[in-house]
Amino acid sequence: MYDVIIIGSGPAGYVAAIRASQLGLKIACIEKSSTADGSTQLGGTCLNVGCIPSKALLDSSHRYADAINHFSDHGISVSKPKLDISKMMDRKNKIVTQLTTGISGLFKANKVTQVFGHAKIIDSNHVEVTSSDNSEVLETKNIVIASGSSPINIPVAEINHKDIVDSTGALEFESVPKKLGIIGAGVIGLELGSVWSRLGSEVTVLEALDQFLPMADKRIAKDVYKEFNKQGLNINLGCKVTSAISNNKAVSVTYEHDDNVSEVTFDKLIVAVGRKPNTDNLLDQNCGISVDEKGFIPVNDFCETNVENIWAIGDVVRGPMLAHKASEEGIMVVERIAGKHAEMAYNLVPSVIYTHPEVAWVGQTEEDLTQANIEFKTGSFPFAASGRALASGESTGSIKVIADKKTDTILGVHAFGPSAADIVQQGVVAMEFGASAEDLGLTIFSHPTVSEALHEAAMAVNGQAIHIGNRKK
Ligand code: FAD
Ligand code: AMP
User: Contact, 336 vs 342, CB < 8 A?
Assistant: First the structure.
């Protein structure tokens, strides 16, 4: 009898398993994925086909583009760099293997039992596990569902794994497509579009919505849109793809824009229209849990389902589909199972788009606050006024701090610029401790760092920034 069975070994499941084990609980983590040679494949989407491989390629492609476009700015001349895609992919694959085998090591060190096979919940105390050569029923006191998500397939652009691919296929191209189409200007579409654009593809992004990055700060989204188009991502808003047909040589894509129908041809097409929760054959019809209209498992703020002792975390439940949100939910849930009073600060889950420059934010936008009738004040600082950003030749973008008008408490931090993810993370820490803009302004930041832009933006909230003209309040 286990204390907890965890279904799925992505960042939700494996982190929950390790924390649970630290708390003295007897744990099994069930994972259905295996590699082509039949060996185990822990780590979920994030490590295998998500965060990690995409960041490996973003980093490699950034270096390549930097050598071509910016080395000469520093007085360094190099002959045109040669691209070895297969070496780039090998590097990415090695990193993935290193990390996924690392999880296996962590499981062993923490005495987490690894079970390989497809899990199905029979009831709150029984999970059936089926693999190619075995089927067994495991007994447990608690179940944590961490089954994650998969790319959404749309019937108008069916994945053929050759020239119409999802995000997984887009991490494995063997050569640089000359003309690359992307359906969807969400985070994944923009990151993968950046990779291939930097490596030489002519990229066209088709996005059904009229608004670009609707979840981000409006002003920042406008700057990002301008910059990405400048970089060669040709982003077309208000373009709904209605068909994509491959003749094995090229993909013909039809889309509607206003009342017009247009056609465009690509060598490869990436379908990046979002992800759906994994619940196929997961829940026995008598187990008491059913999914909502979008396929998510309904949970409360503590990730409890409607059945006692069954919990669900990560991409399979509501909220942003992000690895760090998944992991934190994992920790909260097993701590609660162990009798602690953990909770999640859902308002402090940061979002990042790992393009160059990065886009990152935490907390509320001006639009959110206006809608909620909360009075606020803002302070912004452009990276063009940061000494370090200028010294690095990375002065695109800006950062904005939003604070409550009366209490000065920081309510949001939004950035587009160099190391935006790491800078916004400092805002997350400040917000976690309930800091005011003044607190952040009184904090000492090392000089010269790009983080100083956050310091200045916080000071600008109360008209006290040093390196820009402050608006009269
Ligand atoms: P998953 O990682 O999807 O793991 C679920 C696991 O459960 C899988 O291994 C699956 O095989 C297993 N499973 C499912 N059903 C069963 C079953 N019935 N029995 C047994 N096992 C089962 N997020 C970020 O925060 N930062 C990023 O930079 C980032 N980049 C991304 C880039 C790409 C290209 C993609 C696709 C995603 C990216 N994400 C990123 C999102 C991130 O990968 C997910 O939010 C995260 O992996 C969710 O974790 P999870 O544990 O809930 O699910
Ligand atoms: P995300 O959910 O953030 O990964 O983003 C996916 C994006 O794909 C959303 O902005 C959708 O509007 C967009 N999208 C979905 N279907 C289509 C379609 N048929 N044509 C163009 N864009 C689409």
Answer: yes
Spatial distance between the Cα atoms of 165 and 244, rounded to a whole number of angstroms: 11
Cα 213 to Cα 342: distance, rounded to the nearest angstrom: 32
> What pTM was computed for the model?
0.97
Regarding predicted confidence, which is higher, 41 or 84?
84
Q: Which segments of 300-375 are extended strands (E)?
A: 310-312, 351-353, 358-363
Q: For residues 78 and 309, give the distance between their C-alpha atoms in angstroms, rounded to a whole number.
A: 61
Catalytic residues: 447
> Which band of pLDDT confidence, cut at 50, 70 and 90, is reported for residue 39?
low
Tell me which residues have their CB closer than 6 angstroms to ligand 2: 154, 156, 183-188, 206-209, 240-241, 272-274
Whole-number average pLDDT of the chain: 96
417 alpha carbon – ligand 2 mean position (Å): 25
Q: Summarize the confidence of residues 276-292 as an average pLDDT.
A: 96
Residue 392 contacts by C-beta under 8 Å, 6 or more apart in sequence? 418, 450
Q: How remote is the CA of residue 152 from the centroid of ligand 2, in Å? A: 10
Query: Which protein residue has the closest C-alpha to ligand 1 atom 18?
Result: 119
Q: Which residue's CA is the nearest one to ligand 2's atom 5? A: 186
Q: φ and ψ at 177, to 5 degrees?
A: -65, 140
Does the pLDDT of residue 36 top 90, yes or no? no
| Banded model confidence at residue 469, pLDDT cuts 50, 70, 90 | confident
Six-digit token string for 427: 């805002």
Percent of the chain having pLDDT more than 90? 96
In a 3-state reduction of DSSP, which class is residue 387? helix
Ligand closest to 148 (CA) is: 1
* Domains observed in the chain: 2-151+276-347 (3.50.50.60), 164-273 (3.50.50.60), 357-461 (3.30.390.30)
The number of the ligand 1 atom at minimal distance from the alpha carbon of 321 is 45
Residue bearing the bigger pLDDT, 35 or 105: 105
CA of 4 from ligand 2 middle (Å) equals 37
Looking from the CA of residue 41, the nearest atom of ligand 1 is 9
What ligand is nearest to the CA atom of residue 277?
A: 1
Q: DSSP assignment of 24-72, as one string?
A: T--EEEEE--B-TTS-B--SHHHHHHSHHHHHHHHHHHHHHHHHHHTGG
Q: What is the mean pLDDT of residues 32-41?
A: 75
d(CA 401, ligand 2 centre) in Å: 29
